[in-house]
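G., the chain you wanted modeled:
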Amino acid sequence: MIVKEALSMKEVLKDVFGFDNFKGNQEIIIKHLLSRKDTFVIMPTGGGKSLCYQLPAMMCEGTAIIVSPLIALMKNQVDNLRNYGTDHNLAHFMNSSLSKSEMKEVRQDLVEGYTKLLYVAPESLTKEDNVEFLRNINISFYAIDEAHCISEWGHDFRPEYRRIRPIIETIGQDVPVIALTATATPKVQQDIIKNLEIPQSTIFKSSFDRPNLYYEIRPKTENVAKDVIKYIKANLGKSGIVYCMSRKKVEEMAETLVVNGIKALPYHAGLESNTRKSNQDRFLMEDVDVIVATIAFGMGIDKPDIRYVIHYDMPKSLESYYQETGRCGRDDGEGNCIAFYSYDDILKLEKFMKDKPVAEQEIAKELLQETVAYAESAVCRHKLLLHYFGEEFPKENCGSCDNCLHPKAKFEGKDYIKLVIETVLAVKQQFKAKHIVNIIIGKNSTTMKSYKHNVLEEFGKGADEDERFWNAAVRQALISQLLVKDIENYGILKISKEGHKFLKKPYSIMLTHDRDYDNLEEEEDIMEGAHKTSTADKNLFAMLKDLRKEISRKENLPPFVIFQDPSLEDMAIQYPITSEELLQITGVGTGKAHKYGDPFLKLIQQYVEENDIIRPNDMVVKSVVNKSGLKVYIIHNIDRKLALEDIATAKNLTISELLTEIERIVASGTKLDIKYYIDEYVDEYHQDEIYEYFREADSDSVEEALVELGEDEFTEEEIRLMRIKFMSEVGN
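Predicted structure as tokens:
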């Protein structure tokens, strides 16, 4: 792998990809790969994983082989890469969707050395003729995307991923491997490293913590529907998702909410496709507040202002729970995650597994037990979730979960933890938590007798406490890193170095009892502790949202075209009552203020007077870089209908940078007519479809538009151009 010295990483980042700076760990990851070292990247969605292999591929001699599981994903990435430059042959994909002539073209470009990235499905990689062909190609490195597919313990296991390493060996070139995933527990990480045979790889892991999310587990009683209704009615006007286990329950719950005066719709895979899309659109347009859904409701919905996610039924794994709750508060605003827990739900999920192979059942049961442990624990929920993903949470109290806001009394646990660790040692660190607990409480089963563990000194030594108590003790020993779960034989308890130190010299450890959801005496009002992340005036904010909705309906426009949530929130903090003050509000330019400002100012003034609000003496003035010269130049030359490429070249800008400047000008309220340019570069059909999309959309996000419209058919540049046209014509 020879690195081209002509351009630095920063230059490639700017010239090829249009970014000024790297994000998070990107720079160090790329440097590591360029130095020919195996690399393992764990980075949540949106963190910029793709750049970690795309940029080094541009800098290396030869072709990078990117293994990806989805044809649609491959095509999207290839199209995006081609948009960065003029070379069509810069990136290709090789999968079953290609015709013979297309495959011939791909191979020709590879032989001639034009192609820097080749995306391959794992099934295509294993075909004999492809293997033989790739043996004669100069390969720079292998990138294994969605690497969690290797593991049976991952949430999307694909057996063909297990064959990747043998194929790499067959191709026979000594080049580095980079594995990438958006979610991986320590067990899955180990599986990836083992199966790809990259034991010396450096792991780069970004944080999985979502500090703005509040987590709460509530007991699931006969009145659970009433509890859900009670919470939603206390949060009217806010967007939320209610997750249910079955399609039938989704339908029932949606009907129950509607009968009780809540605007709700169902969403599941069994609905007719037009109905499903219509329900989704109505949720995005804020015609309804709540979507009741199965886990089918996910990828297509990236609404940033979902304020609560309620789990009517517990999910089958903590990974699922993390992903589903992760749809809440993506704008870093308020996000409340409520789950109703009953062990009966866990038993139902176990029954669903009975027809599966035994090995699969065992894995599923282990994952379910992790969910039970999370639900019943009285330990900080942020700490529990991060521990599950192999990350430590540094705080003792997150201030953002039910267990931290309503802590249970602590007690000295030194002797209890000591007994747990001694029992693990007595059975030679070869058994799971359930067996350890059964020894301690003295449960004399056939299994116990067969191992002769009923004669151990530790047998029945903790019989004064029940199974629930000792399960909690084991769990807290794990979180304190005195015990660890064996990765090779998942679930088997091992003693850590710290655990051995503790045995030699025990020290004080404070424990808490697990929450007993069968005992409803301790039940508190739902969401008593849920925090709000905003300092905005809640009543005024709700009134401003209602006014925005009223105007959006009159104008037949999405609410975001009027003002976005951050603007309304800032108004509810600053209380602007003049046009000058309104211009200091986040996201409000002259055009917006002139077109939509008056009714909002009148409402705020009336509210201030009626409620004797003491306003800030001085509105915070936002500082902006003086770009007036550039702004005038762009406006003048667009009026002259000069090609955008020429304007960009004259000011030493990339097209992407120029579009960013144009977006800023339009956002501030200035009309710009770029129809002349759009008509030349964007198909008429595409124009109409994108324009209509933004007319009905809830968000102006380009990423969301790409997902909805189809990343294989539309480009980011097309969408940005049409968004400028739409905002200029409709918003100004």
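DSSP finds 34 helices and 17 strands in the chain.

Shout if anything looks off.
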